[in-house]
């Protein structure tokens, strides 16, 4: 039952499209059995708003997130006979309070999981547009190595403080520097982060959005994915959809990528026997699942 645990909707995210219900309906149409809803957690300072959100206030984002949770739980009940939805959030790592904010939101709203992502370095978005990336780079003394180091240090902070069940788009920092060669120092930080996530049981998502932005592979790129595999890391898959039209985006490429990387076992989140807690389950011979018939 291939799945996705990373999604957004235009109803609750300014850079996505469509309603959350339309996203769920499309996931059902494309025969997903498990689908994770993971809208962005709100930002609590005006300086952390994305350019697309400048017409809003942090309080608006908080209200929007609350509305998202209510709608997600409604859809979970409405479509429970057709699909298993789990409700979570995609975290931010912006400043020293970001981890606490994400954990508090999870507790307050009784969420199922946290998708641990990093979108900021030096409190500046690095995957929103090239202009913002350039600002983050400038704050790193225009030194790509320092920028990459800061990104993976921020990721390590998230892993240590939040311990997200799923590690989101591991190397999204490569979005505007796809050909930059990882240095030994950066590579050591990558290994550190992989080891830490493996130790606490996190899953590494193979995120098809890498192809959307023109990278050769899904996130993470194959050098990092090979390292994850060699260390025994457990992988899941995500479409990082931003509306109904991108549900299952590039899963045809994903099938081929998994096969090329010889990944035949995938892992996914599901409810435990108590019907509340999240557990990690294994899907062996994942590429043999009938789900892939529509993509191959």
From TrEMBL:
Enzyme class: hydrolase
Pathway: Amino-acid biosynthesis; L-histidine biosynthesis; L-histidine from 5-phospho-alpha-D-ribose 1-diphosphate: step 8/9
Protein name, as recorded: Histidinol-phosphatase
E.C. code: 3.1.3.15
Molecular function (Gene Ontology), one example: histidinol-phosphatase activity
Keywords for the protein's UniProt record, in alphabetical order: Amino-acid biosynthesis, Histidine biosynthesis, Hydrolase
Catalytic activity: L-histidinol phosphate + H2O = L-histidinol + phosphate
Lineage top rank: taxon: Eukaryota
Species assigned in the record: Paraglomus occultum
InterPro entries in the record: Histidinol_P_phosphatase_HisJ (IPR010140), PHP_dom (IPR004013), Pol/histidinol_Pase-like (IPR016195)
SUPFAM superfamilies xref list: PHP domain-like
UniProt keyword Hydrolase, yes or no: yes
Span of domain PHP: 5-209
GO cellular-component term (any): cytoplasm
Gene Ontology biological process terms, A to Z: L-histidine biosynthetic process
PANTHER family named in the record: HISTIDINOL PHOSPHATASE-RELATED (PTHR21039), HISTIDINOL-PHOSPHATASE (PTHR21039:SF0)
Stated family: Belongs to the PHP hydrolase family. HisK subfamily.
Keyword Hydrolase: yes
């Amino acid at each position: 039952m291939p799945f996705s645990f990373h999604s957004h909707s235009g109803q609750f995210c300014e850079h996505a499209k469509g309603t959350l219900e339309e996203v769920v309906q499309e996931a059902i149409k494309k025969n997903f059995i498990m689908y994770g809803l993971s809208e962005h957690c709100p930002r609590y300072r005006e300086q952390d708003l994305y350019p697309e959100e400048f017409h809003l206030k942090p309080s608006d984002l908080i209200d929007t997130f609350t509305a998202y949770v209510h709608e997600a739980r409604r859809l979970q009940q409405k479509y429970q006979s057709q699909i298993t939805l789990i409700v979570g959030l995609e975290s931010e790592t912006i400043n020293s309070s970001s981890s606490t904010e994400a954990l508090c939101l999870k507790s307050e709203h009784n969420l199922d999981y946290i998708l641990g992502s990093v979108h900021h370095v030096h409190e500046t978005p690095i995957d929103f547009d090239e202009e913002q990336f350039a600002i983050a780079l400038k704050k790193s003394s225009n030194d790509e190595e320092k920028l990459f180091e800061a990104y993976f240090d921020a990721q390590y902070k998230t892993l240590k403080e939040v311990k997200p069940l799923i590690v989101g788009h591991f190397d999204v920092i490569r979005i505007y520097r796809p050909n930059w060669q990882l240095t030994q120092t950066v590579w050591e930080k990558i290994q550190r982060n992989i080891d830490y996530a493996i130790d606490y049981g996190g899953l590494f998502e193979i995120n098809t959005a890498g192809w959307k932005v023109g990278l050769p592979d899904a996130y993470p790129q194959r050098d990092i994915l090979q390292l994850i595999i060699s260390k025994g890391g457990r992988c899941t898959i995500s479409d990082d959809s931003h509306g109904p039209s991108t549900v299952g985006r590039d899963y045809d490429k994903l099938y081929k990528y998994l096969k090329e990387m010889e990944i035949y076992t995938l892992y996914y989140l599901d409810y435990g026997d108590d019907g509340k807690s999240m557990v990690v389950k294994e899907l062996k011979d994942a590429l043999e699942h009938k789900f892939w018939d529509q993509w191959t």
